Amino acid sequence: MTDFTSSSRDFAADVRRLSDPHADHAHKIPIATALRDAVDSYTTSDINAFMSILLQPLIQLVKLGQPVFVKDSPEQQLRHMYLEILLRMPGTHEQVRNSAAELMNTAIHILRVDNEENAVLAIKICVDVFRIHKAELQAHGQTFIDTILDMYKNMDGLEKEKEKEKDKEKEKEKDKAREEESSKEDESEPHAYTVPEIGEMEKLKPVKRVSYVVESSEDIMKDCRLLFRTLLQAIRQLVVLLRGVEGPVPDSELFGQFFEGAFKCLSLWPNSMGDDPREKEVLDLFAGVFHELQPHVFQEVWTLRMDFFVNICLEHPVALQVAQSLMANAELSRQLTSIMLKHLVDRLDILGDQEARSANITLRLFKMVFMSVNLLPEANETVLAPHLTRLIMDSFPLAAKAREPMSYYLLIRALFRSISGGKFDRVYNEILPLLQELLENLNRLIAQAEGNIRDLLVELCLTVPVRLTHLLPFLQHLMRPLVLALKGSPEMAAQGLRTLELCIDNLTQDFLEPCFAPVRRDLMGALYDLLRPLPANHLLSHACIRILGKLGGRNRRLQYNHPVLDYHPAAEEASILLSFDSRAEHINLAPMTTLATKSIRNSNATYRKAAFDVLKHATSVFLQDGAQGRERESVFTTAIDGLFNAIHIADLKEQSIQYIRDLSKHIFMAELLNREPGPASSRRYPMSPLATTFVEWLPKSLAWNDKDELKTAEGVVRSLIEDLAAIGKDDVAMDGGSAPREPSGILHNLASAFVGMCHNESWRKKMAGCKGITIMVSTESLPPKMTLEREFDFVRALISMLKDMPVDPPRDVDEVTDALMDVIKKSDTAPAGEDGVPLHRARMPFLTGILHMELASANAIVRSATQQCIALLSELSGKTPTELLSTHRDRLLLPIYTKPLRALSFATQIGHIDAVTYCLSLNPPLPEPNDELLRLLSEALALADAEDQNLLGRPVHRQNSLALNRLRVACIKLLTASMRATDFFAKQPTVRQK
After folding, report:
1. Which segments does the entry list as coiled coil (predicted)?
2. More confident: 551 or 502
């Protein structure tokens, strides 16, 4: 190859070869390539010779050469090489300065007439030459801009022309394909496979002057990213310059358009962004534009477009980095933190019902806000403080009703972690009034929660962001969570040990002993469990040894407590006879069924199938031998539990459901055949131990938190009830030759089991009882008379559920009210009695007697459900509520009249006032206008007018303040309803005037 590093004689020879019109272009390409690659490495003397000899010939070759639109042709490659050499020439050289105008005109000519690849290089040449020789080329700048504008104007025509060409080419290719298809002799292949794909047709088209640029998508994306970066730099500089010359600064509307457009441009980075320094620079440039905005423009832009920003974060999480950068800026942090926090708090209600991705973005936004408070406490602490009460205390009732309560607890954890490490006096002062209620709520939730949610609640309880001195009055609330933490994961145990050691180091023995007393046994047991050798966590063991040493032997006081002993009833164990090598042995079923039940949910498919077989064989033993005795009942219950767990396993679902149905049919048929019929008036239906155990366990199968698992369990229980109801209708005889008896006794026992489950402490198990009642009521094969006979029990159980529900009503509380309505409706469809009077109508006075006392309940949900029931009874009976309640008026109102309102709690006062308000709102009103009613109204008037200090006292707790507001509202409603008693109040002008 020719040497391009020394003499001008070589350059002249190269020019002659390149300018020879008769030379083959393929032979010119290596010469041009070598010149292009070596131009950057020439010394000063060489570059002078190079520029003086090659510059003008190259310009002439490019200017006089004809455009080529075949991409891979030698002519196109050679022209492209000439342009690259011109682009790489040093723009500051004297030769370039002298030829700048000619070079600029040539590049503009290429831009107008040549193909897309050469036009891109021409644009770069124009930009570089104009930037270096701006003074000499001032007149050519407008020509370049006009050329660019003409290109944009012609875009519409280009697109239309392109579409027309595409259509023509497609038609040609389709016609060609049809001709080829018709000429084929073998027509077995479908026509669809003979037509070329659109992509193949596009490849067959020639490259014409209006064809699109053939570039890879990655190259296009790189160019777009570079353009976006340049625009951000330019916009920021423009804002700075406009402010410097006191020009019109863009308003919020214009910057709002920039806000939306710029965030949409983040789609240029479809994958993760921010790790690369260049990408991080783009984000910094984007955030830097907001630094130049006036405060009121910044405020309006972000306030009006927060919803848009959150939606963009869902599509492009990298947008969060822009907001995070602004929040870390001392000048903008307070403003943006305030805007974002208000937006998030206003939408706190929907956090628990969002999809996982949306909830994750919302939590990240909250964490960014909390981070800004930790980073710049002087500016942002006062922004966060007013929202603390809603963020902390409102999260608990919202979590109770949410589809995903974990989101609210994660929010509180992020808040506690952010503000616990620094000095936030204003924040601590806002939390202190909430401390008692907060700890009580957490302890109540811990007692009901399970699994990960309980661990998270324990962590919240141990990391409340207040000083130890403020926790001293409520230290007993930390003891039970402390024990659970020591029994939890290593991270939880480490947190519990730190808390325990902090208390021991800073508090006296006399103060700690009463707090430790209720949990001493569990606490010491948890510490002893952590004292384990390697490979257990040695850090936890060392911390336990240190804590026990600081206790100074106080752990030995546990010896004076009564020992905890395991009690095993003296009963025959459940066993199965197995033969091994002609030797038969009775094998205890208890450990086998326990292991099989655990393996059903926590093992691979092979073990699950084996475990299911074990459980089937175990239950078959009880079908033969019965379940007499506590031990056998326990083993049978464990086996049934495992079988019901199997219905939620995909590969065992169908066979487990079928086996459970067959098992229940066998148990119930055997029970009906072996049981002697009792008197018709008897309410007791004794059953065998096996049937009793099975029936009592059925409600527990509905105690699931997962919706899908609950739906499956409901379907199984419903099918079992339908099978049981169908037994009495079948005429199929069993081995004894007698037809099965009527199964009402078993159904009544099952109803009693559901009612009993409604009185369980756990809300999840209460709801299992409610679901069971709903299933029995909605099962069409069960006669309405069955529901009527148990109506009072069902109503009492469901109302008891509403009265015992958690302080924060759960989301499924409406299902209890719906079940109550369904029971009454189904009972009303019962047939008439022998006297022709519908059975339900005859029982309505007794049902009203159960309901009327709940009108004055301290629970608002109970009062609302009772009023709905009375309205339903009125609709079914055709009587007014006043007529239904008239016989119970004294029993309802006398307890309200006889006790002064101020002697009762706020909740009870509200209940009594609401009951009277409801009675006065009836048409006609239920209460008689007398002195007792006047005294009650006077009390309500006094409560509505009283000052808060006179009713609340000191200290003022948040719940009492909320209850007082509800009490005032109830008093105003009562006074409004009482205005209907016009004649009576005409004699009391003073009271009426007030």
Report:
1. 432-459
2. 502
Task: Tell me the CA distances in angstroms from 988 to 890, 981, 984, one per residue in order.
Answer: 24, 11, 7
Give the residue carrying structure tokens 């074990």. Answer: 614
Q: Which of 43-47, 115-119, 739-743 has the highest mean pLDDT?
A: 115-119
pLDDT at 359 over 90: yes
Contact at 8 Å (CB) between 89 and 106? no
Interatomic CA distance for residues 849 and 122, integer angstroms:
95
Contact call for residues 121 and 83 (beta carbons, < 8 A): yes
Tokens standing for 404?
A: 């995903």
Centre a 10 Å sphere on the Cβ of residue 538 and count the other Cβ atoms it contains: 11
pLDDT tens digit string along 513-542?
888 888 888 888 888 888 888 787 888 889
3-state secondary structure of 928: coil
| Alpha carbon of residue 826 to chain centroid | 38
CB atoms within 10 A of CB 445: 24
- Among 33-47, 97-111, 568-582, the range with the most confident prediction by mean pLDDT is 97-111
CA 34 to chain centre: 62
Q: Which residue has the tokens 């026509």?
A: 191
Buried b (16+ CB within 10 A) or exposed e, 448-478: ebeeebbbbbbbbbbebbbeeeebeebbebb
Q: Tally helices (H) and strands (E) across the chain.
A: 52, 2
Cα 548 from Cα 528, distance rounded (Å)? 10
**705-744 residues labelled b (16+ CB within 10 A) or e (exposed):** eeeeebebbbebbbbbbebbbebbeeeeeeeeeeebbebb
pLDDT higher than threshold 50 for residue 211: no
- Put residue 274 in one of left, alpha, beta given phi > 0 → left and psi -120 to 50 → alpha: left
**CB 715, CB 781: distance < 8 Å:** no
CB 408 within 8 A of CB 352: yes
Q: For residues 198 and 204, what is the distance between their CA atoms, to the nearest angstrom?
A: 10
**DSSP per residue, 96-146:** HHHTHHHHHHHHHHHHHHS-HHHHHHHHHHHHHHHHHSTTTTHHHHHHHHH
pLDDT of residue 981: 61
Total count of residues recorded for the chain: 994
Residues in a beta bridge with 625 = none
Helix, strand, coil % over all residues of the chain, rounded to 5: 75, 0, 25
Name the phi and psi angles at 850, rounded to 5: -75, -40
Tokens representing residue 450 in the block = 């399970």
CA 145 to each of CA 108, 111, 390, 973: distance values in angstroms, whole numbers, following the listed order: 10, 12, 58, 75
pLDDT digits (tens, 9 = 90+) for 936-966: 888 888 888 877 777 776 666 778 888 888 9
Instruction: Count the Cβ atoms, other than its own, within 10 Å of residue 357.
Output: 11
Rounded distance, CA 458 to CA 413, Å? 11
212 band by pLDDT with thresholds 50, 70 and 90: very low
Determine the Cα angle at 20 with ends 18 and 26, to 5°. Answer: 60
Enter the pTM of the model: 0.74
